[in-house]
Write a structure and sequence with these properties.
654 residues; alpha/beta; Amino acid/polyamine transporter I; 2 domains; six-stranded mixed sheet; 10% strand; elongated
């Protein structure tokens, strides 16, 4: 993801953060800065929701044997167009732009940042089980991965399908071309988005202007369609069409897919640029296009095959629109892919996912990362979906259930923030929660009929990711509990060292510790087998806080013990990548001097056995062992120099 108008910020991990000027609560200081941030938001935040016109309204009037077929007569066209309009107003404008975006975690948004915000007021010192809000957030994060798999497939397919409007001969090329574009898109991720990211905003600006302009001629020919802004058309449609009307919400929800991105990407651009981009560019473009499609249905009825491309078919603008739509779909996919990288990085830092390979693709913007494992899994899944479903209409049947599930969970977490963090009374919090969750659950319920037709896929992805996250957290908890039973209190160990001194060698030994007190197992293992200590011993703990960035004096604590021992506690946020050598470098200010050329890092390499008596299901033990065996070594994760790392083997029964 691109970070416009970056600002440098130092932190205890040693990185220089070039975040958007709006991040961490700082709003743009000039009109020029606001303009550039708003343009950047167009390219990153609004790609998904901006490509919805490619397939959303067509899906409402596409014959569907399970749901029932809606004929595009006048009342149906007015009803569907009205539902599209009010879905955008109530969900995107009222819920997200006005209310949800107020719940920022030091400027950051997204479902994990929101869950961390809820957890900040949790005074329980250490839970043996994950709290219900966190479990919901993890399931919501899993659903977002399902959404991330479908979005590239459905967006690019929807764009390429415009070729069939040019000539029926191109129909057989649609699936291979889509698969090739997706493979190419995932292939270039390794080089980062910094170079192409600069033009994303301009392309999306052109896209919204183009789709708005495409709808204007048909609105001018049938200005009565503007009457669909009245909510009575939406209400009368739902009341008059019974079950079919309710199930049509499953198609209507397609116009708001991507709404969660407004909140998730808030930390990159800030609230004001995202709101400005919406009201000045995105909302007008979407409304003009949807109302133009509605006017087209009023004019031609059942003759319409693809309402988006029919707005420009038969003229010179079809091929340029196909090209522009493909570019917009690629940008929408890019935003979801980058979002999956960012979400995974947050989950790793918060301890819900095993360590993965995090490649920083820009020396200027730390937010631009590439995670190969996530990239290739997304590529295989997206291409497989294209080959299996073969059309955006079929894929749209699988789309929506993941989005609505995540939105409902976001509503609940926002309710908890209102109560716990902001001190709202129960009636005041419910006055917001009940309308929000009622809309979310109505959309979710309408989408349940899609489960058999493909909606099971994002749910399966969500359940799979949720299982991995909860298993990894629980396994780490049980592992740390087992490890703690073998630790020795600081005073007892240091007293023993004082009474029976060990030989000391020159240099500094750094022992990584998961706890913030007691001598770590790795140190005890080292003493037991090597019977020697360095002149200077550092016990280093890296603690991830429930805030995106930990900065200032409180983020680094250095305490001198006895006999050359020091305890260092570095606190980092869930958006930060810990860099141990630079953390140690910053310890000089607090009296601890470490020579990098004379420092050895000691890590424990655990061999896990599932035969222990730990209170965890055997299948979870096996899954955790598999994940631990395949997680990336801590050397790269903590930015340790590989030639100065010593690993000591430990065998542990879970």
């Amino acid at each position: 993801m691109t970070d416009a108008a970056a600002a440098s910020r130092a932190d205890p991990t040693g990185h220089s953060h070039h975040r958007a000027a709006a991040a961490h609560g700082h709003e743009p200081k000039s009109v020029k800065e606001l303009t550039w941030l708003s343009l950047g938001a167009l390219g990153v935040v609004y790609g998904d929701i901006g490509t919805s016109p490619l397939y959303a309204m067509r899906e409402a009037f596409t014959p569907n044997p399970e749901r029932g077929t809606l004929k595009p007569d006048e009342s149906a066209v007015f009803g569907i167009t009205s539902l599209f309009f009010w879905a955008l107003v109530l969900v995107v404008v009222v819920k997200y732009l006005i209310f949800i975006m107020r719940a920022d975690n030091k400027g950051e948004g997204g479902i994990l940042a929101l869950a961390a915000l809820v957890q900040q007021n949790d005074k329980t010192p250490r839970r043996t089980r994950l709290a219900a809000p966190i479990l919901l957030a993890l399931f919501g994060a899993g659903l977002l991965y399902g959404d991330g798999v479908i979005t590239p497939a459905v967006s690019v397919l929807g764009a390429i399908e415009g070729l069939s409007e040019q000539s029926p001969r191109f129909v057989e090329l649609i699936v291979p071309m889509t698969a090739a574009i997706l493979i190419g898109l995932f292939w270039v991720q390794r080089w980062g988005t910094a170079r192409i990211g600069a033009v994303f905003g301009w392309i999306m600006l052109l896209w919204f202007v183009a789709i708005g302009a495409a709808g204007v001629p048909f609105i001018l020919r049938n200005p009565s369609i503007l009457g669909a802004m009245s909510p009575h058309h939406a209400v009368s449609f739902l009341a008059g069409h019974g079950k079919l009307g309710f199930l049509m919400l499953g198609a209507v929800v397609l116009c708001i897919t991507g709404g969660e991105a407004l909140y998730a990407d808030m930390g990159h651009f800030g609230k004001k640029p995202i709101r400005y981009a919406w009201f000045l560019v995105v909302f007008p473009g979407l409304i003009l296009n949807y109302f133009g499609q509605g006017a087209l249905y009023l004019e031609e009825g059942t003759k319409v095959t693809n309402p988006f491309y029919d707005l420009v078919s038969g003229g010179p603008f079809l091929i340029p629109m196909i090209i522009l739509a493909t570019m917009a779909a690629i940008i929408a996919s890019q935003a979801l892919i980058s979002g999956a990288f960012s979400l995974t990085n947050q989950a790793v830092q918060l301890g819900y996912v095993p360590r993965v390979t995090v490649v920083h693709t820009s020396h200027r913007a730390e937010g631009q990362i590439y995670i190969p494992e996530v990239n290739w899994l997304l590529m295989v899944a997206s291409v497989a979906l294209v080959l299996a479903f073969k059309s955006s209409s079929a894929l749209a049947a699988a789309y929506g259930i993941a989005v609505t599930g995540t939105m409902a969970i976001t509503s609940y977490l926002y309710f908890l923030v209102c109560r716990r963090n902001w001190g709202y009374s129960l009636p005041a919090a419910l006055a917001l929660f009940i309308p929000f969750v009622s809309i979310d659950l109505a959309f979710f319920a309408a989408n349940t009929e899609k489960i058999a037709a493909g909606g099971w896929f994002p749910l399966a992805v969500g359940v799979g990711v949720f299982t991995i996250m909860t298993t990894w957290w629980r396994g780490r908890f049980e592992l740390s509990k087992t490890m703690e039973t073998g630790t020795i209190p600081d005073e007892l160990f240091l007293q023993d060292i004082g009474e029976t001194p060990l030989p000391r060698v020159a240099g500094t030994a750094v022992f990584m510790s998961s706890g913030i007190d007691g001598m770590p197992n790795v140190l005890l293992h080292h003493v037991k087998h090597n019977k020697v200590l360095h002149k200077q011993v550092v016990l280093l703990s890296v603690v991830t806080e429930n805030i995106p960035f930990a900065i200032g004096n409180q983020s680094l604590q250095v305490r001198e013990l006895k006999h050359g021992f020091y305890r260092v506690i570095a606190r980092v946020g869930f958006m930060q990548q810990p860099n141990v050598p630079k953390i140690l470098n910053k310890c000089e200010r607090q009296g601890l001097i470490v020579n990098p050329a004379d420092t050895t890092y000691y890590l424990g390499r655990q061999t896990l056995l599932t035969s222990g008596a730990g209170k965890i299901a055997r299948w979870r033990k096996m899954l955790f062992t598999f994940l631990a065996r395949n997680s990336r070594p801590p050397t790269a994760f903590f930015n340790l120099p590989p030639n100065r790392v010593v690993e000591l083997g430990l065998q542990i029964e879970l």
